[in-house]
Amino acid sequence: MAAATEQSPLAFERRGRVALLQLQRPEARNALSNELLEQLAARLAEVDADPGLRCAVIAGSDKVFASGADVRALAAQEPSEVYFGRRFQLWDRLRRVHTPLVAAVSGFCLGGGFELALTCDLLVASDSARFGLPETGLGLIPGAGGTQRLTRALGKARAMDVILSGRLLDAAEADAAGLVSRRAGEDWLATALALAAEVAERAPLAQKLAKRAVGAAFEGSLESGLAQERAAFTLAFASPEAKEGIAAFLEKRSPAWLDKD
Q1: Which of 111, 112, 146, 245 is the catalytic position?
Q2: Catalytic annotation on 115?
Q3: 62: number of CA atoms within 13 Å, CB side?
Q4: Does CATH number 1.20.120 belong to domain 204-250?
Q5: Given 135, 145, 196, 245, which residue is catalytic?
Q6: Is 111 part of the annotated catalytic residue set?
Q7: pLDDT higher for 93 or 248?
Q8: Which residues are 123's β-sheet partners?
């Protein structure tokens, strides 16, 4: 794996059809600086544009996925800089990534780190994973989607508990609440990469359309979600992937997906 430097806090590696993006700011417990978010957004834009990459894994270290925002850098900003500045634009870019994303979480996953994991489509957690949104302890609130995504995932009562009390969810509770896609022990990264490889083996256009449709169910009304699902299904049905998939099913063989959308 390419080593991170002071100028490059994000390591990037291709694993076949899977991209591995590993946060590497150990001196700051992988705090999400603007530079790190810039590199993450840029790399994921490259992944979106590369037909040979069909899934991406975002990971941290054994001890910490990401500890949240870079508080020292945040404290130096004026409110207008926060609202109109680059940081929220970067979060919007991450939210609009088309390629399926897997968060590989071990250790602490806090604040903006938790919000980054919630932005992903699938979440693999080690047994040591701990999730929390401690912002109210700093006189702040989650600002990168935490109040919205966590509430949709856990329901109002439990989301209020996590946000207002600052308590952490361990891997078992997060799994039982439906936040975690798959649990893993010490092999959390291998498990995440294996899951990503499974995703990458399936029809790439259909996977992106399915991601969009599920997102519509998660974020909008039932009526708008059904409309988006129907449009996505029609696009999938008209694609060469569908023709190949149906033919392979009828011919009792494995489909041969092309590396293009």
Answers
A1: 112
A2: yes
A3: 3
A4: no
A5: 135
A6: no
A7: 93
A8: 103
